[in-house]
Amino acid sequence: MEGFLWLVTQMTLLLTGAAVIFFWLGWRWRAQDARKLETALNTRIDAETSTARSAQEDRDAARMKDHLHLATQTKLESDLLEANDHRRNLERELIRVHDDLKIAKRDADQRAEDATTAKAELVPVQNEVTKLSSELSQAQRDKARLEKEITELRARPVVVETAPVQTTVAPTTETEASEPAPVTKPKRARKTPAEPKPKAPKETKKSSKAVVDAQTTLARLETDLNAKQTLLNAVKQEQEEWQRRVATLREKGKDPAGLGLAQKSLARAESDVSVAANAVAHLQHQQTALRHSLEQAATITQDDDLTQIKGIKAVLKDQLHVFGVRSFQQIAAWSDDDVEAFSELLAFKDRAKRDEWVKQAQELISKAPGQTNS
């Protein structure tokens, strides 16, 4: 029995030692695995940290690019606004140059017309000069012929009758003998001038020219009106574009600087629209006033002397005739808009208003109502 107990005790001790040894070995193996796992986790954490750092750097770079893009966009919009302003200035300058060219062309046409009239008036004078030169040449030839005859008469010898006792001279005094016989200048038949060709009355020619010039003026107004209407449509489109851009920027609310620039551009576009609309309205009124005046001129049988109105000289009178204004009654019926329209057509700004043409025409009508045209 004691041997059995001793054996059990020994076996227990052996088993306990084996268990301790196995426990120690297991703990060591687990510690090694834990260290390996910790190393792997640290490596993974380092990799994740590096990745996060790279992502942060990428985000910072993207944010910088966004700022650069925004600054570039703002600069481009500013450059676009300046380019639009420059384009509008160039368009205004082009319109002004076009108007100056039209005025210069009209002046050149007027000078050419004056030159043609002067040439036409010079032809009869040249014909008369040629005729007088021919007559002068004929008179010089007649003078030379007469001088030759006088010389021949003076060179003839004096005839003297002689007698046996005394010499008797013909009853001619010394003075009479020395003087040649009077020579009668033959009358030269004057050429009968050819009858001039009948010319059309001056007033008729002037009227036909006025119709042509009036039609030319109407065509010019139509061209100008089309150009102004095109410009008005363009600035209206630009205004609508800026209105949409301002509305978009207000909705986003992220670019106050761009919104301010857009609002300034919108204000300029609205101003341009107003100016272009006024120009179109003025041209339309000029066209309407001119057509109405031409319709009235077709019913006028006798023109009034418009130079009786202070401020209207011969040139302005002719220009008014071109535009169909031929009577005091027409000027007296002008409204303020008509006065402005004809002032612009005549290129004499404010003269009609300053000299009170309407009032003067009314006074002339009241003084001599029977001599005016209605």
UniProtKB/TrEMBL annotation:
The protein's name: NADH dehydrogenase subunit E
Upper taxonomic lineage: Bacteria, Pseudomonadati, Verrucomicrobiota, Verrucomicrobiia, Verrucomicrobiales
UniProt keyword annotation of Transmembrane present: yes
Signal peptide, first to last residue: none
Coiled-coil regions, chain positions: 73-156, 218-252
Residue ranges with Basic and acidic residues bias: 192-206
Biased composition (Low complexity): 165-184
Transmembrane segments: 6-27
Entry keyword Coiled coil: yes
Keywords, in A-Z order: Coiled coil, Membrane, Transmembrane, Transmembrane helix
Region called Disordered, residue ranges: 165-211
Domain of life of the source: Bacteria
